[in-house]
Amino acid sequence: MQGRAVIVVKLGGSLNRDPLLRNWLELLSTSGGGRVVIVSGGGGFADQVREHQLHWQFDDLAAHNMAILAMMQSATMFRSLAPGLEPTTTSVGIARVLQAGGVAVWYPADWIRTRANDMTHWGATSDSLAAWLATRIGASKLVLVKAADIGPAVDLAGHARSGMVDAEFCRLTRSASYPIEVLGKTELSRMVNLLERLPSGSRPDSRPDSPRN
Is residue 187 one of the residues assigned to a domain? Predict the structure, then answer.
């Protein structure tokens, strides 16, 4: 998307049953045109995967694939609550949506796996996928929105120790070129400020996606 920076906003699954979810979707869909990509958490849909895995003891590869589907269920719900969101599965699709002035919601269908790897386990959550996407499209910023209150001046290592983000997320973002913000669910005004201060000049990569299978 020529001439504008891009911000990836991960809406945590813990917001899926929170009344403020509508406020976040309204803000992003009305103010993020041409520069926002939304990544959804799995929320209660992913919790169902955990419960079924505990009951049936199926492997983490199956659980990973089911959790990816849970993220897509959340994304589908987001689109129903905010019909202006544009679904896309690839960085090429994201570029097209943003170039047209829209707000993209990512469906990570390409992350369905046939073989296990170092991302097909519960230690790599949707936060890690959001970090992968931010790197993939050359985002200017990654924002994680959490339902919990966020303490001041806590770094990513501190968030990892508290369980706010997963350990894989820290590994993936260790050399990230973009800044990372972790916001609590009531911090919509901070999101407004981030959008207003978003610099121009970068654009999402339009190369074909190639996550490992």
Answer: yes
